[in-house]
Amino acid sequence: MPPLVRVKHLEKIYDVSGVKTPALRGVDLEVLPGEFTALAGPSGSGKSTLLHLIGGLDHPTSGEVWLSGKRVDQLARTELADLRLRHLGFIFQAYNLIPVLTALENAAFVLELRGVPRREREQRALLALETLGMAEFAARRPNQLSGGQQQRVAVARALAAEPAVILADEPTANLDRKTGEALIEYMKMLNQMQGITFVFSTHDPRLLAHVTRTVELEDGQVKSDSAQAQAQRRDGSSVTSVTF
Ligand SMILES: Nc1ncnc2c1ncn2[C@@H]1O[C@H](COP(=O)(O)OP(=O)(O)OP(=O)(O)O)[C@@H](O)[C@H]1O
């Protein structure tokens, strides 16, 4: 099975008024369809930067980013927009809701852009809002919702679209316990039933308990990868004796 996400020798150096901060220092990563992968690591290790680059929201300093067989870092604007619309969902801290649309219309927006008929898109958007405890706010506009409620609408928009890959930056941060648990259940359901691939940064032990793989970053490099560790155990190449 070819990887859905492929990152090769990725480097990102932020340059703010001549002050250079290396955020990624040669990251290689492949994510296969159907994975439920966590990016772990301390604050500042490069998790958000990596998610932004995979999603084509920023340009790498060097290296390659591939998504669904396309080279994300070299696509023209319109091609990138099309790739995002059809293949990618984001759950990031900036919610980017459209102020003149209701919560339901916002949650259905990606489906509308894709030409999904009104009835179907509203059903899917409402289901996502319900799961996140937001059905009663479906008719409200973003400025009539709290920050946490706006976050839930943005999450519903990404989930309702059921893209091939969902990239999420700390998706359960800022959510109360009950909503956080409902979101985890919903993400798992989409992963297992629809085969949607998830790559997310998280420190949340409730979410980490469900991952199929953990990639740990440190100082902009991959420090450990549970998938590689498993593969090595399968070959027996790095394990000389196992005792229980
Ligand atoms: N827009 C930016 N401009 C300049 N430096 C940045 C920018 N974004 C991130 N950095 C720096 O790049 C490094 C990696 O940051 P990044 O946000 O990717 O880490 P993170 O692992 O997601 O951290 P956290 O867990 O705190 O969200 C840090 O040193 C950070 O200060």
UniProtKB/TrEMBL annotation:
Keywords annotated in UniProt: ATP-binding, Nucleotide-binding, Transport
Domain ABC transporter: 5-244
SMART domains, sorted: AAA
GO molecular function, one term: ATP binding
Top-level taxon of the source organism: Bacteria
Stretches with biased composition (Polar residues): 223-244
Statement: the UniProt record of this protein carries the keyword Nucleotide-binding: yes
Region (Disordered): 221-244
Entries under InterPro entries matching the protein: AAA+_ATPase, ABC_transporter-like_ATP-bd, ABC_transporter-like_CS, ABC_transpr_LolD-like, MacB-like_ATP-bd, P-loop_NTPase
Protein name, per record: ABC transporter ATP-binding protein
